[in-house]
Amino acid sequence: MKSSKGISHNVIDRLPRYLRFLTDLQEHGEERISSKEIAEAMNTTASQVRQDFTIFGSYGVQGYGYQIDYLIHSIKRILGLNKKHQVIVVGVGGIGRALLEHMDFESYHYQVCAAFDVDPDVVGKQINGVTVHHMDDVEKVVGDRKIDICMLTVSKSAAAKVAERMRRMKVSGILNFTNVELQFGDKDIFVRNVSLLDSLFTLTYYLEENNL
Amino acid sequence: MKSSKGISHNVIDRLPRYLRFLTDLQEHGEERISSKEIAEAMNTTASQVRQDFTIFGSYGVQGYGYQIDYLIHSIKRILGLNKKHQVIVVGVGGIGRALLEHMDFESYHYQVCAAFDVDPDVVGKQINGVTVHHMDDVEKVVGDRKIDICMLTVSKSAAAKVAERMRRMKVSGILNFTNVELQFGDKDIFVRNVSLLDSLFTLTYYLEENNL
DNA sequence: TAGATTGTTAATCGATTAACAATC
DNA sequence: TAGATTGTTAATCGATTAACAATC
Per DSSP, which regions of chain A are E strands? Predict the structure, then answer.
């Protein structure tokens, strides 16, 4: 799969992992690192590390390596993490609630402006400072605010309809936790499917394959 | 990345998606399907679909296509979903609790035998029929039962230590929801990292790239 | 039998790795 | 300057796609 700029999805998927590793180093007070060291930590080659970075620009210094602060800053900028993003959570069952309560949105400039559900037991409640509104009011509550990302954690049966509603509201991206694979033909909305069940299945495959 | 049998990780990742699509069809009463139709639904080529299946065996019939029931059965067998798997959930914060409450373990022969945490507020409670024990007692509670999979949802700081403890307990696989990338050198334990934050970041990248 | 669609081999394409000149 | 490590081009490897014979 390639992105519109022709950058392979594999590369994009590695960026958050680099970021995580580098942030750990930074917290331990490290200042510089070489592609070789990154490669060892990430179980890949120095070549791939350098290739991944140079697609986007030149972030290192010959003979020295990479300044960790600057590399972190650069990867964040590539991912778009330097900008603020407005988020809504649609579906406040188990996973939706867990996201609201435990996901570290603030550190990465994501602002959760509202949550939505249909269950009268949760509608009206506040979870971690975010008010849960009734799904019927989603357009009204959002108003003319531009929503960047919808975290979709509704039931399978509601998924497609809610997703279409998000598209009509001009939401830019859906992080889709329902086990329904959403596909939109157009380029106005991006979907990233996250299936916990799929991850469990692939793990199970490797156990099976190795008779564990 | 290749598995020990030399089957690419890409293929393994597609199997649960095929399974999900086919199960939907089955529920709608469909009986047969061609690789061409599967490819259209999955946004790939008929060639790839057939390649993916024939790695494992011959599940179709020339001139007819694939019998959906049999194909589902076969993919489940490949993934190891025909067998029972013993699961423990370690960490009963937001995500751990959500998994216990909402994940459809039973339909796929996963048996959640216990959950663990250190928080006195949850230790001793029952969640969806599963008792939460104190982390200190994990070896005692598990006893000589063989645990196949640990769902790890503890805090970042506890992740590495708990993971090592799982390895010593001969747990076969860890589904790792902590944002700590776990790596084990040996082949006795498999780890599948699931980072919700990483998924959010890659989605954000695509929005950024397309100026959404 | 004729038509359809698989399983499989060959061709293409893209991603990873290796090599090395540039340069700090 | 000498040593180190990047950025980048070329070589290799693997995954996807195309083509077609096998066969239901």
Answer: 32-33, 60-61, 65-67, 85-90, 110-117, 126-127, 130-134, 149-152, 173-176, 190-193
